[in-house]
Write a structure and sequence with these properties.
Blueprint (H helix, E strand, L loop, with lengths): L1 E5 L1 H13 L8 H6 L7 H13 L6 H8 L3 E11 L2 E11 L7 E7 L5 H17 L5 E7 L8 H17 L8 E5 L5 H14 L26 H14 L2 H7 L9 E5 L3 H12 L3 E6 L4 E3 L6 H11 L9 E3 L12 E4 L18 E3 L8 H9 L3 E3 L1 H4 L2 H15 L8 H19 L5 H8 L4 H27 L3 H17 L10
Parallel strand pairs: 4-5, 4-6, 7-8, 7-11, 11-12, 12-13
Antiparallel strand pairs: 1-2, 2-3, 3-5, 8-9, 9-10
Helix pairs in contact: 3-5, 3-18, 5-18, 6-7, 8-10, 8-14, 8-17, 14-17, 17-18
The chain binds nicotinamide-adenine-dinucleotide.
């Protein structure tokens, strides 16, 4: 086993090493079909978006340098046994910024994981947390495995071993760095992480807060599973309601009757599809890596999900047209296209073919900088990842706060609220001279449950962040990505000012 703990300086050296490695193979055919070879890698792309936004921020050049660079990275390699052979497993954790602690960001299991990807994702997490005023720095982790190649017990051993590495190197802890689910991971893996951390730190009374996205029985919060998809829905709904957006893309402004195509039917894509369907949109297409489905009248999301669970693919799904070359469906006409799979799905090869009016980036980094420019030139409206998919980290923040308080949201005040409202209602009824029906009465006095508080907090967060982004975009006449990132840079710069972590010249 080798392991490496790197400070900011060492991180730069590591990056030099990574650059000297053979170019990463973008194994999915989707990426090959979307991007040109000369397009920047993910980390460079995030840096390019940052540089553009920096021009519209108030931060000094010194502060910008500090914000842009990655604080620390951890790279570990450990052996696992598979079919009688030893396989070396590579994993990473990147802490992009510790201007606020803990660092926060998912852990993904995917065969394409590499250090530059994890660093890019951790940088996006820094900007994302600032956009939605979640008081965390940015982190991200990844293990370079295809989870489909491993049994459940092997995955458990890999997850626990990786967590042990994080514990030993102080890359995990409620006040240090808090992972969450991402591609290829979910509540099951988060449970293994929490348990391993607790075994390593039995004295830590706040141990449950070392990871978010846990099952409810392990200290999770209601609403976390669907949070990112729900946030995507709230964000798109908000942008559609802006008159300038309606004018730009010639849209009626309602989710109801809008057509939506979604790429990726995992956690984020599935839940986004559910919320759009439930609110009257027609989800006309879903794109997976092996096949896509299309129905002009709108797909039944639950039927589709059941079919995929039973058959492992969309192929053969009876209620829609099945498309064998799935990437074609990204180019179909629709009001909103939602990439919710992986990065670099819209590049210079397919950007000019996109016919959607609006692109809602549910995935991290789905549009390359070159494609971003082409789409905007073609009058498309892009709602950027650092804003649109922030619902996950927002509700992770609620889960973390719940774990630290050791108290379920609503437990202290639900009955008190109900009694106060009941007294008020009695007064109103007396004055109005008309008693309310039992149903009306129950609806009005109902005290909020945990999931209702979480939904409400998430909705408010998304609405505020969308409007802050809109204001900056309108005031400076810039696109929404640049505006969201400029706002984020200003907030981080403000928190760094006077912190002592930046050298100032007298
Ligand atoms: P997931 O693993 O649950 O789902 C990803 C889905 O995309 C899978 O169904 C997979 O088969 C599919 N997919 C993979 N390659 C594809 C391709 N080339 N074309 C079409 N489909 C493909 O992952 P997730 O948690 O839903 O994450 C999806 C994206 O959202 C990622 O970019 C992730 O970083 C981002 N994100 C996730 C969260 C979260 O809370 N889970 C939060 C913010 C951002």
């Amino acid at each position: 086993m080798t392991s490496m703990l790197a400070s900011r300086h060492v991180s730069q050296a590591i990056r030099r090493n990574v650059v000297s490695l053979p170019a990463r193979l973008h194994s999915t055919s989707a990426v090959n079909r979307a991007t040109e070879d000369h397009e920047p890698k993910f980390l460079q792309a995030v840096g390019m978006f940052f540089d553009e936004a920096a021009k519209h921020s108030n931060a000094t050049a010194e502060t910008l340098k500090h914000i842009k660079s990655t604080d620390s990275v951890l790279s570990v390699t450990f052996p696992m046994e598979k079919d009688g052979k030893t396989v070396m497993i590579r994993g990473y954790r990147s802490q992009h910024s510790r201007h606020r602690l803990p660092c926060k960001g998912g852990i993904r299991f995917a065969s394409e994981v590499d250090l530059q990807e994890v660093e890019a994702l951790s940088a996006l997490m820094t900007y994302k947390c600032a956009v939605v005023d979640v008081p965390f720095g940015g982190g991200k982790g990844g293990i370079m495995i295809n989870p489909k190649d491993w049994t459940e017990s092997e995955l458990e051993r890999i997850t626990r071993r990786f967590t042990l590495e994080l514990c030993q190197k102080n890359f995990i802890g409620p006040g240090v760095d808090v992972p969450a689910p991402d591609v290829g991971t979910g509540p099951r893996e988060m449970g293994w992480i929490a348990d391993t951390y607790r075994n390593f730190n039995p004295q830590d009374v706040n141990g449950a807060a070392c990871v978010t996205g846990k099952a409810l029985s392990l200290g999770g919060v209601r609403g976390r599973t669907e949070a990112t998809g729900l946030g995507v829905y709230y964000g798109i709904r908000e942008f559609l309601s802006f008159p300038e957006v309606q004018k730009k893309i010639n849209h009626h402004g309602q989710v109801q009757d809008s057509s939506v195509i979604i790429q990726g039917f995992g956690n984020v894509g599935y839940w986004a599809a559910k919320f759009f369907e439930a609110n009257g949109a027609r989800v006309t297409g879903i794109v997976e890596y092996d096949a896509a489905v299309y129905s002009e009248k709108g797909l039944n999301i639950e039927h589709l999900s059941q079919w995929r669970k039973e058959h492992g693919t969309f192929r053969g799904f009876p209620d829609a047209k099945v498309i064998d070359s799935p990437m074609d469906l990204l180019e179909a006409e629709c009001d909103v296209l939602i990439p919710a799979a992986l990065e670099r799905q819209i590049g210079l090869r397919n950007a000019h073919k996109i016919r959607a009016k609006m692109i809602g980036e549910a995935a991290n980094g789905p549009v390359t900088p070159g494609a971003d420019a082409v789409l905007r030139q073609n009058g498309k409206l892009i709602v950027p990842d650092l804003l649109l998919n922030a619902g996950g980290v927002c509700v992770s923040y609620f889960e973390w706060a719940k774990n630290l308080s050791h108290l379920r949201f609503g437990r202290m005040n639900k009955r008190w609220d109900e009694r106060s409202k009941e007294q008020l209602l009695n007064l109103v009824e007396g004055n109005a001279g008309r008693p309310l029906s039992e149903v009306e009465r129950r609806q009005m006095i109902h005290g909020a449950e945990e999931h209702e508080l979480v939904y409400s907090g998430l909705e408010d967060t998304m609405i505020v962040a969308c409007n802050e982004t809109r204001q900056t975009a309108n005031a400076k006449n810039i696109d929404y990505r640049t505006a969201a990132m400029a706002n984020s840079i200003n907030k981080i710069a403000a928190s760094l000012a006077g912190s002592g972590s930046i050298f100032t010249h007298a």
